[in-house]
Amino acid sequence: MPRTGPGTAAKRTLVWLGVLLALLAALLGAGSVWSNASWTPKLALDLEGGTQLILSPKLQGGGSEISPEQLNQAVEIIRQRVDGSGVAEAEISTQSGRNVIVSLPGTPDSETRELIRASAQLEFRPVLAGGPGQAPAAETPTPADQLPKPTAEPADASDPNWITPEIFTAFETLNCLDPAALEPRTEPAPADQPMVACEPETQGKYILGPVEVPGTDIDGATHGLARGQQGQSLNSWVVNIDFNDEATKVFRDVTERLFAIGQGDPRNQFAIVLDGRIVSAPTTNAVIPDGNPSISGSFTEESAATLAEQLKYGALPISFEIQSEQQISATLGADQLRLGLIAGLIGLALVAVYSMFQYRMLGLVTIASLVVAGVLTYLAIAILGWTENYRLSLAGVAGLIVAIGQTADSFIVYFERIRDELRDGRGMISAVENGWRRAKRTVLASKAVNLLAALVLYFVAVGNVRGFAFTLGLTAIADLVVVFLFTHPVLRLLARTRFFGEGHKWSGLDPERLGVAPLYRGAGRFRSPAETAARPAVAAKTKNKAAASEAERRMTIAERRIAEQQKALAGRGPAEEKEENR
Amino acid sequence: MKRSSFADFGNELYSGKRSYPFVAKRKLWFIISAAAVLLSLIIPVVKGGFNLGIDFRGGSEFTVSDTANTDIAVGEKAVTDVVPEAVPRVTNIAAETIRVQTERLSDDQTLSVRDNLVAGYGVGPEQVTSSFVGPTWGEDVSRQALIGLVVFVLLAAVLMALYFRTWKMSLAAMSALVVVMVVTAGLYSLSDFEVTPSAIIGFLTILSYALYDTVVVFDKIRENTAELSVTSKRTFAEQVNLAVNQTLVRSINTSVVAVLPVASILFIGAYLLGAGTLRDLSLALFIGIILGTLSTIFVAAPMYAWLRLNEPEIKDQEKKVRQRRALEAANA
What we know:
The complex is a heterodimer.
Chain A: H1 4-34, H2 45-48, E1 50-59, H3 68-84, E2 91-95, E3 99-105, H4 110-117, E4 122-132, H5 165-173, H6 179-182, E5 195-199, E6 204-208, E7 213-214, E8 218-227, E9 233-243, H7 245-261, E10 270-274, E11 277-280, E12 294-296, H8 301-313, E13 318-328, H9 334-359, H10 362-387, H11 394-423, H12 428-460, H13 464-495, H14 498-501, E14 525-527, H15 529-533, H16 543-552, H17 557-570, E15 576-578
Antiparallel strand pairs in A: 1-3, 1-13, 2-3, 4-6, 4-7, 4-10, 5-6, 8-9, 9-12, 10-11, 14-15
Chain B: H1 6-15, H2 26-47, E1 51-52, H3 54-57, E2 59-64, H4 72-80, E3 89-93, E4 97-102, H5 107-121, E5 128-133, H6 139-164, H7 167-191, E6 194-195, H8 197-225, H9 236-246, H10 248-273, H11 277-308, H12 312-331
Parallel strand pairs in B: 1-6
Antiparallel strand pairs in B: 2-4, 2-5, 3-4
């Protein structure tokens, strides 16, 4: 009985798995050649050590002592920032109620360092003048007599009288194409003075008036899709700001003034300045009386979210100074990891022995599947270490070890279902197919629980818990991939071999060992008379399904007893042999 | 069935020839679990809570700089000589710097530890600085983790109710989950192990494992009881019990496979390494995996059968089964 259909499908699935693995390996290989990916997973602070930064806070405007609440808020904000840059599992704490200690795995790059330190000194300043970013050639500055000179004391923050010759010269020589000029500054200009600044996004430069609204007056900021006049969603992203009461009044006055200037004039714009850099310089399209302005423009979802985050954090009136920076070694000795791994490998060997004992040659399928799952997880961890800064901590390793059990469980559930089908007297090939159909549901439902846990914890939790969620989700997905793309196709193919198909003693699927009556031969099936009676008429395609539900109603304790009694009376039960044609 | 083997065991469980009364003896299991839960709630109260680590409470930190001797043991001894019950964390940060972290010490203790460090590492008193450090696992981390946990448990309950099409399965699964959570926490308190962030992660791992295990067994129960209305061969409770028995081999195999690597880390690792994060974590997982498996069999499944026992349909069906059996007994 040649059955090419499912057999070729199984082979094709295996090829797809090979392609998937090759693609992941190629991705990682390409990453390690052309980018900074590594073939080994990145390790977290407890296993690898890293860098400890001690940050001392500085209150904006040189205010008095920092309160414990502000310090806690600072810790929370820094944690969010660090988490936002990946799943790095940083440790953040306070020291002596004064400093913030940030421990990061590896050596943080300047970007991460900046992220932590960034003072979040956020200001709203009106624009006085703007221009393209590059500085004019050094030999042709504006002659001294043509420099703008203030004619009177500035009347308001938008008054061009703020532009002194010094400011204008600074503006002219400012080169926003120079990366150094784009570095954030911890000490931007005093709040009551004008300043020059670059907008890194557009590489434009501006002269800005004094601060109108400080970032501390922001109650919150969100991003979302723009609303049309009828309240319908438009297909563009906006950032919504929520000012506190005081700033609402100020901002209404400011927008009244800027709006009156009219569009086209750069003085119609106001700039959102973060650490001396312009985050955004929107134009004023309306007077905002309610303190809830929204900034629209060419935002993508990502850039809108970033700006909203920056605005939100802008509410913290603290900036930080890196007081000390030192390398720290792993908090867990290297021997802990090494011995832990050795112990884990011994455990894996025990798992292999146990599966061979339980499932004979079928145990080899378990071991092979675990190996494939291991390779898949390893590649995924290495790739995510590169793209998401995912780092493996000791708790993560423990999660992976527990995952061995859950991954193996998928195979165990599957194998037990096949055995159940065989016990019902089904032929090997149909037992595999039917067992799979039932096992698939169970596997999907149980992995859905794990994925749900992973997703919820990933999005809600912070710090270490987030790293854990990542590991959990990763292993659940790897497990599903392996069961669907490896274990099942392999079993389909094996069911067609003589060794497994005929239920060899060592195959782990020996019908005799599984208590099937020896009547069973080849693809024939043993049937009890009770079930042939009420066989529903079904289409050929759903035949197995119908048979499966019948199987559930088969042979109960009471029935079996009766059957045994009858057998004792009649010598042999009235069994009927029926050829199965599928 | 000439000789008894594990395969025979599985066969007999499948056919119903061998059956353990998981559902019938539910009162006994419930009493045992309730007692365990009660004990687990009392233990922390009596013992005065959990042994929270420095990550949660903050503590004292000493830094020894410019020392030629970077032996970790010296730092540990310096603290334990003063506070015998402390579990100091000594780290070699930078090339010639040692950091000693331990629970929050009093002023006198701080001075003594400082003197010990000066003597132990052979450095000048000015090279040892001390300070208090705040918790790395602050309230914000705990709060977010707790919110995540609650949201997850609620969503999982809804998901299960939708998938199994009955909220009673969700309720039964959640009861088993609560038993696992409380008893694991109780054991932690009893053993007086330091609660570290790793322990919390281990705890979450256990929760996901316990729920996972319950879903697998419940799926078999769902399958067995799907066509209950058209059959009068077994009562509902018997069907549930059969499902648990039929998946018993799976439960045993899975928990053995899951526990083997953890146990090998616990016993081999702990033997070689002594106390440490690895031992604490693997112990929590070891206990948790076993508890998770047991709670499914002894709490979740019987609880589900019990929850549905008084439904009119279930009662009707039970009546039919009784009638049929009476009839069969008469015929035989």
